[in-house]
Design goal:
Mean pLDDT: 90
Shape: elongated
Structural class: mainly alpha
Number of domains: 1
Helix content: over 70%
Largest sheet: none
Order of helices and strands: HHH
Radius of gyration: 19 Å
Length: 87
């Protein structure tokens, strides 16, 4: 492997790690907003008499954090894998 290919692969790894770190930092802010959205004053997800639409909305709000983590892993890993395959 020549020096240019090594440099671009190293750069891809650095960018992938940076995307991962920034994404994991953003997860903390998203978790706070999800907790706020589930409270009794906003969605009232703990209420016994909520409608089916509210239940579905609560489930969708609960899926935001895992979906975001999977998205961060996919973007960071995909960038590194693309450089690894295309070299």
């Amino acid at each position: 492997m020549n020096n240019k290919a090594q440099a671009t692969f190293g750069f891809a790894i650095i960018v992938g790690i940076m995307i991962f770190i920034v994404g994991m930092l953003v997860v903390n802010f998203i978790k706070d907003e999800v907790t706020t959205a589930r409270t009794a004053t906003v969605l009232n997800c703990e209420g016994a008499d909520i409608s089916d639409g509210t239940k579905l909305t609560c489930l969708a709000v609960d899926w935001v954090v895992p979906y975001f983590i999977i998205l961060v892993f996919s973007i960071a890993g995909g960038g590194i894998a693309a450089k690894l395959v295309l070299r």
